[in-house]
Amino acid sequence: MKRYKRPHFYCLAFAFFAGQLLQADKIKDEPDGRFLYMSTPDGAQRAGSSDPGILIFDINDGHKFVRRIDIPVFSEGIRGFTGCTATKSLYYSTTGGTLGCYDLVTETIKWQSKFKQGCDRSCITPDGKRIYAPTGWWWRSEKDGFIVVDAATGKKVDQIAVNKRAHNSIASLDGKYVYLGTEVTLTQFRASDGKVLQTISPVGESGVFPFTVNSANTRAYVCLGKHAGFDIVNLETGMVTDRVFATDPKTGKKIRHRTHGAGMTPDETELWISDQAGRKLFIFDITKSPPAPKGHVDLSTGGHGWVTFSLDGVYAYCHTPDVFDARTRKKVASLAGPNGKAFASSKFIEVQFAEGKVSRISNEFGLGRVNPK
Rounded distance, CA 32 to CA 23, Å? Predict the structure, then answer.
């Protein structure tokens, strides 16, 4: 590494739930800087996968691979990967129904729980108290919705029936709300107790796909299920105000396959959406009404689809190894794992360190970060 002193490593063995043993590399003093923590294997795509665990990349050093943390339970397939600055921890969910907490300070698994339903892309309230775990898009029952978990212990404290195929969830950055995407429905909850505040339907055209929310909690952008595009939801009125389509750069026609990935730049001026089948990210100016197209970037591979940004808005990340400069739209890096092969995942988080301590953790969704209303 060029900029930072290389950390000291040693092997730390510890026992965890069910009597298994887990080996993890231990950083005695994490250097200051910004790092991309990426979980693998992705439960929704095979391309770019590595051995089960977390791969760390140095954002300030050209996104070079730093090291790998072995976490065998990730072999169940990662469905969600979120973090919390207040607890200095990362939280993961798997296709096998495992929900767990990984402590960034001690580099140990604090707890692991198993649920018959769930767990999909879970979220945690910014105060680090409650995890809302969607039961999973693969379920269709009257109990589909949220499993609510005490973030300190991993114990279930509530279950909220909402709608079928509960999939993606977001906790607003101001700590007031939680959002859940189910079949053509977006539901808003009060974060403190899970009370349903409003249900917006139909939205998103079909299926259950990603969405993002601005910092004032006034607008949501929901991916379409039959076209490359998105719906705009006015969260103050509960109405869909616009449906925006991306068009094929060659033909100018609508693109007839789903969108899986929508990320807002932190300054809330642009929305990037994924056309994973077409290997593109389309960009829209969301300061205009309706949003105006601003072009696209080409991707090196296909995959599951995802879009988010570094906390400072400089870099755009997606479900491929490609890293883009969000301003110039030029590809500036390609992620490669410990074996030098291209690495990709749609489950990743930025972690910042200051004076050797965890100082800030991003969100896996591309959320707006302008001062909240």
Answer: 24
What's the sign of the alpha-carbon dihedral 90, 95, 99, 102? negative
Provide CB contacts within 8 A for 189, sequence distance 6+. Answer: 132, 146, 160, 177, 178, 179, 180, 195, 196, 197
- Using an 8 Å Cβ cutoff, are 348 and 363 in contact? no
Question: What pLDDT does 110 receive?
Answer: 97
Task: Report whether 90 contacts 47 (CB < 8 A).
Answer: no
Query: Which superfamily is assigned to 32-361 in CATH?
Result: YVTN repeat-like/Quinoprotein amine dehydrogenase (2.130.10.10)
Q: 322 to each of 32, 158, 208, 306, how far by Cα in Å?
A: 24, 39, 25, 12
Candidates 126, 156, 127; CA nearest to 143 is: 156
Check residue 26 and give its pLDDT. 40
**Tokens coding 205:** 């055209």
Task: Report the largest interatomic distance among the alpha carbons of the chain, rounded to a whole angstrom.
Answer: 58
> Which structure tokens are listed for 157?
């404290």
Please list the residues that pair with 58 across neighbouring strands.
Answer: 35, 64
Residue 25: pLDDT band with limits 50, 70, 90 = very low
What's the mean pLDDT in 188-195? 98
pLDDT at 31: 62
Where do the domains of the chain lie?
32-361
Per-residue pLDDT band at 116 (split at 50, 70, 90): confident
Confidence check: pLDDT of 63 > 50: yes
Question: What size, in residues, is the chain?
Answer: 373
Exposure string of 95-109, with b = 16+ CB inside 10 Å and e = fewer, is bebbbbbbebeebeb
For residues 115 and 97, give the distance between their C-alpha atoms in angstroms, rounded to a whole number: 5
End-to-end Cα distance, the chain? 41
In this prediction the pTM is 0.90
User: 301 - beta bridge partners?
Assistant: none
Residue 212, beta-bridge partner list: 221
Using CB atoms within 10 Å of the CB of residue 5, give its burial: 0 to 12 exposed, 13 to 18 middle, 19+ buried. exposed
Q: What's residue 24's pLDDT? A: 34
